[in-house]
Amino acid sequence: LVVGLTACQENLNAPGVCPDLCPGEQIVVRDTILPALEGGDSTFFGYLSRSSRTVLLVSDQLPAGEYRSFVKFPKQRSDSIPVEGTTYAFTIDTVSISFNLQARDSTATGLTLYLHRIPLATDTTVTFEGLEGLIAAGEVIDSIQVADSVKSGRIEAILAGDELAKVATPADDSGQIAIGLRVRASKPTGISLSVDAASSVSAPSYQLRGHVPIADTTKRRQATLVRPDSLSKFGLVGNRDLAANADPNLLYIGGPRAARSLLRFAIPEYIRDSTQILRATLLLTPAVQLDGLPNNPSGDSVAVRGVQVDLGSKSPPIVAFGLQAAGPLTHGTATPVSVDLGFLALQWQADGGPPTVVFLANSDEVFGAGFMQPVFFSTRSPIGQPKLQITYGLPTRPGRP
Amino acid sequence: MRRLLFGGLIAAAVPGLAVGQSSQFGIRGLGIPIRAISPRATATGGAFAPFDIESGTNPASIGPIVQFTALFSTAQSFRSSTNPFGSASGRDSRFPHIVAAGPIGGTRLAAAVSLSGYTDRSFSLGTVDSIDLRGTRVAVFDTLSSRGGLSDVRLAGAWRASSWLNLGVGLHAITGSNRIDSRKVFSDSTYAIAVETSQLSYLGLGVSAGIMARVASTLTIAGVFRTDGHANIERDTLRIAETDLPTSWGLAVRWQPTQKIGWAASYQAKNWSTADADIRGQGGIGAENVFEASTGIEIVRDLRNPGSRPLRFGTFYHTLPFPLRSGKQAHEYGISAGTGFRFTAGRGGLDLSLQQLWRSDGDGYTERATILTLGFSLRP
After folding, report:
1. Which side of chain A, N or C, has fewer Cβ within a 10 Å radius?
2. Beta bridge partner(s), residue A73
3. How far apart (Å, rounded) are the C-alpha atoms in residues B300 and B290?
4. Are B127 and A11 within 8 A, CB to CB?
5. Are B82 and A11 within 8 A, CB to CB?
6. Contacts of A131 (CB under 8 A, 6+ apart)
7. Residue A371: phi, psi to the nearest 5?
8. Distance from C-alpha of A238 to C-alpha of B20, rounded to nearest angstrom
């Protein structure tokens, strides 16, 4: 029984120090730095459609740029409301306007979001200056003071009594209302708010609350709510676009023009065929200071993906889980950025593996917009060219007698 | 004969199992030698092996067999190794010997198929160091592990020439593999674990011839000669080398003054130095000639059922062929004891032996091991 219980257990350890006792050599580790292929790097623009945008940016004196946003709430009946199939007169006593705070500077105190009433004619063609002027001219409906402890989540303005006059709408507008957004805090700051055209629960909401003349007291309180229901019902504008007159000798990612950059490398055959890549790190040097939303817990980063085939700007990226990498971008610095490419480098070694090409994008691309607009030196720059640092193990053919 | 073939098929189906105990003295060369002996012979230090139907050293020993016999043995080893770099304990479980033997009906012939360990090269070595990587000192942990070894598949035939003389021949296929795994782990987890594996496969052929003669009413002698040619070595299916295997000879004597008591002594020499140049050429340290000497006694307690609770004792001394360091040939010696049981009217049997052995190269590398071997036999 004892033998049976222990029969499958092994411990073959023997004390020893290589190379004294080991038959054969230990794996030798080498490190090398490969520059990106000269002239093989480019920036391409326009990778986002408007429907990809799921945030509104609002800022005040932020080095990353000034941003203003607007929201238009659709038609909403305010004089009556159906209750269990019967329409009753609806007497409004409260209006709630809420937003979903996605990111903020966690060290800024006294954060206040101001809601200005702006013309319903405002649409996505508005410029920064245009929206800034509309906000300045528009009456302040209310302000939302965000507690310093609130880092994300729902924030709300409540209007009641005489304040309801600020959101009164002409009969011809059928309850539609447009609101421009600006922000203030104890220091230059910014926020991002969730929004989407699908009217999901994370989008801004405009809620009318009141009562109806009904005998059942549990049904007297009623509410009705609307959210922006199309892409034309919200927008953001900023006054900073680093790629407005793009320098072809620099690499851009993100920004209003949704830039991505492509880098190509040539890995020597002996590394590709005969070694094991232990670590591969992409080294990028910012050409301008990285300005974004400071003290943002979710931070900014550059997303690096391989491509299935090198077709230049239309190269289809590898989307497999684990083959995408990200490197942090530190706000307020021009510190070189390191991105460990992990399993992607191993794919390059595989038979029939993808080309040694990477696509750089701003991680904020998934939200459709972000404060930071990273710009990196390219292979055509006199300094700070992109590089790939590879640490690899040399084969030793273990098994000497 | 059908039973014999069946036993042989079982043996052939599990070649990877036929390896022996691991040891730090199995790190070099082809590993530590394994002996094709039954638990009964193991209990007598190996001295009874040249006369033992269930052992695989002397093809003539199956000559007197009158009934089909199949044996399956398992060994559990508990080991403590010490060398200038430290001490470590280990254990492993192996299946060192499987045999099926029986008479060929209507003739004076007998045949056997066996699968035994030949050498074992299972070990795991670990070291700690640090290296400079990207301007930072990084701790690294290297391990080198090997699993496997060589097995000896034997087809043997014996002729009972007379009531006192048995002659036998054996054909041996020496085959097996080493799965070697080398890894380097970094304290900084941003570096992947460096792994290199390779599989060394071996194939060789050998022949053996043996004699067992009762030269007096109480005295039997045995002799064995065996040559194993060479082993072709492939790394991951690529032929990379060839290593000569040894020629060996052995003599043994058994004295049975009464039916209850038997004593045996054996001596065997192997010229492993024939592999020296090949092993050096492959980057190894070398190989040296070895000898194996053993003696033991068996006391039968029930003459009507000799396999029931006999007492067996033995001792042995072996030199080992593959030194860890040049010029430092290691040796092993030990004592052993065992007994056995028969049940279901002798159709089934269980033999066990307990060995305590010590190994040393005389210069700081030592090892102590306790090995429990169990053998399950069947005589349908």
Report:
1. N
2. A177
3. 33
4. no
5. no
6. A68, A70, A118, A122, A180, A237
7. -75, -40
8. 76
**CA pair distance A321, A306, nearest whole angstrom:** 12
Tokens of B330: 């290691």
What's residue A14's pLDDT? 67
Residues B105/B131, Cβ–Cβ less than 8 Å = no
Name residues whose C-beta falls within 8 Å of residue B267's C-beta, 6 or more positions apart in sequence.
B250, B251, B252, B291, B292, B293
**Does residue A198 surpass a pLDDT of 80?**
no
Q: With H, G, I as helix, E, B as strand and everything else as coil, classify residue B308.
A: coil
Residues of chain A found within 8 Å of residue B92, distances taken between Cβ atoms: 10-12
Which run of H or of E encompasses A349?
Answer: helix A343-349
Choose among B346, B308, B264, B291: nearest CA to B41: B264
Q: Euclidean distance between the first and final Cα of chain A, in Å?
A: 37
CB contact under 8 A, A21 and B183: no
Lookup result for tokens 């904020």? A364
Q: Are B179 and B167 in contact (CB under 8 A)?
A: no
User: E strand or H helix at A140, and its extent?
Assistant: strand A140-145
Tens-digit pLDDT profile for residues B262-297: 999 999 999 999 999 999 999 899 999 999 999 999
Instruction: Report whether A204 contacts A101 (CB < 8 A).
Output: no
Contacts of A29 in chain B (CB under 8 A): 131, 133, 140, 184, 194
- Rounded CA gap, B296 and B282, in Å? 39
Parallel, antiparallel or unpaired: strands B123-133 and B165-186: unpaired
pLDDT band at B376 (very low <50, low <70, confident <90, very high): very high
Q: Contact, A206 vs A95, CB < 8 A? A: yes
Q: Beta strands B123-133 and B109-120: pairing type? A: unpaired
CA distance A347 to A323: 8
Strands B123-133 and A13-14: parallel
Which residues 6+ apart lie within 8 Å of B356 measured at CB? B334, B335, B336, B368, B369, B370
Sequence-distant (≥ 6) Cβ neighbours of residue B135 within 8 angstroms: none
Return the closest-CA partner of residue B97 out of B115, B81, B84, B109. Answer: B115
| Helix runs in A119-169, H state only | 128-137
DSSP strand E in B194-301: where? 194-216, 219-227, 230-235, 238-244, 247-255, 261-270, 290-299
- The CA–CA distances, whole Å, from B368 to B73, B85, B125, B250, B318 equal 22, 16, 18, 27, 14
The widest CA-to-CA distance across chain B, in whole angstroms, is 81
Backbone angles phi, psi at B59, to 5 degrees: -65, -20
| H runs (alpha helix) in chain B | 2-13, 39-43, 276-281
Check CB contact under 8 Å for A23 and B24.
Answer: no
The model's pLDDT over A360-399, given as tens digits with 9 standing for 90+, comes to 999 988 888 899 999 999 999 999 999 999 999 998 888 8
